[in-house]
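Lecture notes, unit on protein representations.

Consider one protein chain, 468 amino acids long.
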Amino acid sequence: MKSLAPNASFGQGRVLRGSYAWEDHVLCVSVCLDGEEWTFRDTEICDPRYTEVDRERRVKERVRLGIRRVFERVYGLAPSPWGILSGVRPMKMVHSMLDRGFPPEELKSILLEVYALNSKKADLLLEIAALQRPYFHSDPNNPISIYVGIPFCPTRCSYCSFAAYPLETHGHLLKGFLQALHLEIAAVGSLLRELQLEVEAVYLGGGTPTTVQGEDLERLLSLMREHLFTAGTREFTVEAGRPETLSKETLNILKAGGTQRICINPQTMHAATLRSIGRRHGVDDVRTAFARARKVGIPLINMDIILGLPGEELSHVRRTLEEIGTLGPDNLTVHSLALKRASRLRKDLDQVQIAQEQGEAMVDLAREYALSWGMSPYYLYRQRHILGDLENTGYAVPQASSVYNIQMMEERQSILALGGGGVTKLVSSDLTLTRHANPKCPASYAARIREHLEDRLNLLRSHFASSN
C-alpha cells in the first residue's frame, strides 16, 4: 500500500499511520494505531460519473473517516452529526453531485457511508437542495446580485467578528465613508449599463445599515435604486438588524426606498442575555420595531436568533421561540453560536458557559417551531468553533425564501460587493471563484476606493468579457 504521510506520533508515543491501494478497481484504505488496523473498501468511487480528481479526493476522505473512527473507538470521541463534512458550505457538494446525475436516494447513501453524516443531516441537505435548485441560472454572470456593506453598528456585540465599527468610537468616519460609497455605487451602476447586466437581488448589509439615518439614508437608497436596480431586480433586503435603529421615520424611508425585506434580529428575547452580549435594545424594542415594520408595509421580515448564548439553556430558547411566534415573521434564521477568533466573547471564555450538550436539542427545537409556523429550511451553512459541531439554517414561509441568501451561500452566481469589507465573488462557467475584497476599515475604504476604483472596474470588465 502507498503511505499517505509520515507516521504521526502523539499521546504517550502512540503512532497513527494511513495507507491506501487500488486493488481490482477497489479503493482500499487502511488506518492503523499501534498495530490495530481499520480498513475501508470503496467500490462506489469507481463509478464513471467521478473524475480522477474525485478519486484522489476520496482517498483523503476515507483516511479522514478512518482517523475519526479510530478516535471514536479508542478515545471515546462522540460522533459528529456532520461526520467528516467539515466545510462551511456542505450544500455545494450536494449540488455538485446532483449536477452529475446522482439521484437523491443514491446521494443520501453516499452522505451516510462516505461522509458519515447522521440521517437527519443528510435528509436536511437533500430537502434544502430540492428547494434551492430552481433558483439557479444557466449563466452565473447574468443575472448577478449586489451586496452593499455599511461597516457601522450602534455597539459591538461580544460574539461579533465582522467588519463593524461602533458609532461611539468611529462615527466621525461616517460622512467620508458615505461620500466614497456614493462614488462607488455610481461607478458600478455605469458598468452594469455598459455590460448590460441584470441584477437579481440587492442586499444592504453590514454592520447595521440603519445606523445611517434621515436624509443620509434617503440619499443612499435613492442612489442604489438609480444605479444598482434593473428591470429584473426581484429582491431588495436591508439588514436592519438592531431594533433600536428602526424609528417610524427610518421604516418609512425604507419602505419609500423600495425595501422588500428587512432583518430585525433579536438574537434572544431575554433581557439579561441582551445586556451580557452588548446589545443596546430590549425585548420591548423588538416587539415595537416589528409592529412598526408591519404597519408601514414592509412585505417580508426575517428574524435572527442565536443558540448557545452565554447562560442560556433549552428553556430560554423555547421562550424566545414562543415570543417570536407571536410576532409571525416570514423568515427565521437560526444561528448556532460560533466563537470566532476576533470576537470579545472568545477572549472571555472563562466567563462563558455554553450548553454544548444541549446544542442539538436547541437546533431540533428551533426546527420544530419553524415547521409549525409553516416554514421550510431553504439555506444552510456551518462555521468553525460552532456550537455542538452543528449548523446555521434559514427558514422561510412559502414564496419568501431570500434569493440573495441562496445565491450568496451556494456561489452559483457572481456577486459584486460594494462598501466596507465587501467581498466580490466572480463565478466562472466551471463554477470556480475569483475574490476581490474592499478594505474593512471605513477610513481605509474611503481613501483607497478613489485610488483603485478604475482598476477594480477593469477587473470586472475582464471577467464578464471572458464569461461571454
